[in-house]
Amino acid sequence: MTWTKQRLNNLFFVVGVLACVVMLLSFDVSFVELWEHLCHAGYWLIPIIGVWLIIYAVNAWSWYTIISSKIADTDEHVGFWRVYRLTITGYALNYATPVGGLGGEPYRIMELSKDISTEHATSSVILYAMMHFFAHFWFWFSSIFIYLALAAVGDLPINTAIATLLGIIIVFCLVAFYIFSKGYRNGLVVNVLGWIGHIPGLKGWSRRFRERHADSLQNIDQQIAALHAEDKRAFYVSLVLEYLSRVIQSSEVLFMLLLFGIDNGGGFSGLVITYLHSILIVSFTTLFANLIGFLPMQLGVQEGGFVLSIAALGLSAALGIFVSIICRVREIIWIAIGMLLMRLPDR
Fold first, then answer.
1. CA dihedral defined by 97, 99, 100, 101, rounded to 10 degrees?
2. pTM of the model
3. 337/318 Cα distance (integer angstroms)
4. Which residue, among 326, 312, 249, 237, has the nearest Cα to 282 in the 3D structure?
5. Which of 79, 101, 133, 182 has the largest CB neighbor count within 10 A?
6. Are 308 and 291 in contact (CB under 8 A)?
7. Which residue, 250, 236, 248, is CA-closest to 306?
8. pLDDT for 296-342, tens place per residue?
9. Under a CB-based contact definition with an 8 Å cutoff, are residues 238 and 58 in contact?
10. Is residue 293 scored above 70 in pLDDT?
11. Is residue 116 within 8 Å of residue 273, measured between CB atoms?
12. Helix (H/G/I), strand (E/B), else coil: 147
């Protein structure tokens, strides 16, 4: 078992390294232009990259809250710094893999099962992934009202097309809230495996897997349902922390807007409006990227999302390209950090 986990660890490491190479070769600009963008960013690269230390710490705190909750009737314990490390590495693998960035979840389960039971590790990872996406929907949902508030004071445009788009996003989020509420009440794993069984060629595998692991799957689903039913405090703390991480992430875009001298007149009020614009840019870009999240590293999707969202706020497309390039560089750096953490000894 240990040998198998080591081989899987090596496989994940190779995937991450290849992702860094592909991302370096997939820039839509030459390396000369890339270097010019980096020089333009200058010392602002430090807070742009460094703020992710805080973002990942908040993400880790959210996951740690789930692991330490009452979902498992056990005295198992794992340290926060261990969770922090797995958070960084897991997201590095998510950046590198297709299908909505799910590459980090198997790795997190595999590594966390060294500290706690496999069932507890699996349920906590699934719950955290659910919380991560659940917070995304709340971020998108609340961004609609931020846009409407800014439109009400004349800062942003509002017309029939924009209102229709915002209405569609509201309906999309409300449907998602309903689906998540069902998952949190009844569990998720057994139902997902049932849906997989309807995919041509996977019906037999799904049935055999459910029969072979029936007790474990039921236990995992019970732990998923128990988070909201038996430990509401842990549920809402985890949700608020995940939502907060999106707000903090928006400061990355804020730094780049300030770099270009975009501060809406300066002063406290100008900085607040610029930060709200940054939230809207991140919100629209992540919505766009997640809707087309099957592409590995979301190549081209994130860039297009930044350009469109920034242009929608009346800013130049050149700024959108700059933001997307610097964010891609930041991703490469953090993928590399995640890969290095993967090679460090567990203790």
1. -20
2. 0.84
3. 29
4. 249
5. 101
6. no
7. 250
8. 444 555 666 676 777 667 777 677 777 878 888 888 889 889 888 88
9. no
10. no
11. no
12. helix
